[in-house]
Amino acid sequence: MASIDNSLKDSEVQKHLNELENVATEEELEKKLEKWNKFGFNVSSWMKYLFNHDSGEGFKAEWLSIDEYKRLAEESMQDAWRVVHAPSWKLEKRGSQKGDIVESTQTEKFGKVYRFTGIVDCPAKFLYSEFRDNLTRLPEWNPTILKSELIKEVGPGVDLSYQVTAGGGRGIIAPRDFVILRRTAPLSSDGKVTDDTPSSFICSGVSVTVPGYPPHRDMVRGHNKVGCWFLTPKWVQTPNGKVEQTVFQWLMCCDLKGKIPQFVLDAAFATVMLDYIVHVRAFAASCKAKGMF
């Protein structure tokens, strides 16, 4: 964790933070930092401190019953399904690949939520099975996830996991860790779990606390309010016939803790989402080359 420059008074720190909150673009941020550094202000140090400083609330955790975990997991999945289908979304950023977009919407229950949408060249069921069954292998092909550990299988389609995500914002936002209650399921068109031919697949997650996984002293514990990977099959015509692709949507609403201005969060979340899909596509292409689908 970065140490704050004690030569700056609290009033000066707040003044500079207020200026940062009014910066609208990454270019403006770079200019501000360059100017302040010329005057001898170690702005980067205290920015990192403020952005990655947790409140230090006491850790309390106890195991819930199987039924309570199942209820919470089902509720978080339904929340995610409703939000991913919300009607009003605002464009945040376009990706380099045609059709890749990051959008956001304001919700009454969770605040600002982000949604990525893009196409992956593989069957939706294959990608869903990989996310569902090989959670601990995610860091092997996805460098945005530093650690992924299965804590406990709660029941069919419900588990507890521990994950560490890479930082963002050009190093200003440090890595976060999460304890996630996950729900995976094939869904019908109205968002109900189905054993018939599904219209989509979901891997949703919400933060919980469990014994044995307290926040690390040198890492900030993030809080996932609502989120999911939402995978929808899409058939496209090619010269060799019809092939199935996946409409890949990632819903994210995280409290990263720390005093992070909204524009920094917007840039960081959009960048993480657009970086993430690059690794998903590379993984799908590798699996296709190996004849796995």
From TrEMBL:
All residue ranges annotated as the START domain in the record: 87-281
Higher taxonomy: Eukaryota, Metazoa, Ecdysozoa, Arthropoda, Hexapoda
Protein's recorded name: START domain-containing protein
Molecular function GO terms recorded: lipid binding
InterPro entries in UniProt: STARD3 (IPR051869), START-like_dom_sf (IPR023393), START_lipid-bd_dom (IPR002913)
Organism in which the protein naturally occurs: Pieris macdunnoughi
Record's signal peptide: none
GO cellular component, one term: late endosome membrane
GO biological process, one term: vesicle tethering to endoplasmic reticulum
Pfam families: START
